[in-house]
Amino acid sequence: MTLYNQVSSNNRKAFFLIFFFLIFVIFIGWAFSYFLNDVLFLYIAVGFSFLMSFISYFNSDQIVLSMSNAYEIKKNDHPELYRIVENLAITAGMPIPRIYILEETQPNAFATGRDEKHAVVAVTRGLLEKLDKRELEGVIAHEIAHIKGKDILIGSMVVVLVGVVTMISDIFLRSLYLSDSDNDNKNPLFLILAVVGMILAPFAATLIQLAISRKQEFKADANGALLTRDPEGLASALIKISSDRTSLSKINNATAHLYISSPFKEEKVSWVSKLYMTHPPVSERVEALRRG
Predict the structure, then answer these.
(1) Does the pTM exceed 0.70?
(2) Domains held by the chain: number
């Protein structure tokens, strides 16, 4: 897949995510109205779904950065890092993204933002201290590839949307349990389907999120290696990052998929745990890079 095809594919995925979210929230609003005999819930759901879609598109990057306790730096704060980001952005033919640092000892990095003009590259202090220049270039190239391919739009949006889907599913189930409304005349089959749907919705949203994330990592690895012409630099960085057992002090399940390597350190990878992994196994990514 070329980078241009990847951008088109991610635009379609962004539309799908927003569409899925709108339909899901409106359905919950209708279910609320049906079971609680109050149509007001449907109007609230429609307004809420459009509001959160707007927020996820325009403000998800700031939400992610706030959750990560990241702060912005300028050229004079870290000239070498700035030059690497600048050179790779120029090579990719895009504006220089803003650079943020997380005061974390675990080596890791992520990119966020809705497009090239509003992009952010964030790296941990541990990444700067534990990787050499060649490896750091590989990591930054990977993040630049995410930005160029519009992966960051998808990644940032799902942080907000998946969280909201989980929250409103929980609200619906709690309200249904606590409601004093007379549901004796309601269709029991629909009640069962609604409850099952609310229980499964967060899992379905999370699986969609993780499936998208894993595919994007392979593409960003390949496109990042093309930027540097040095796949071994990124491969070495991935090995070093994944083998580091340091934990992050500020990590959230909602943002884990954004990082270049999983911030959670899995000791064993069974087929079940692999299904819920935010990233492909590093061994597979390194093999793909070295195979070319």
Answers:
(1) yes
(2) 1
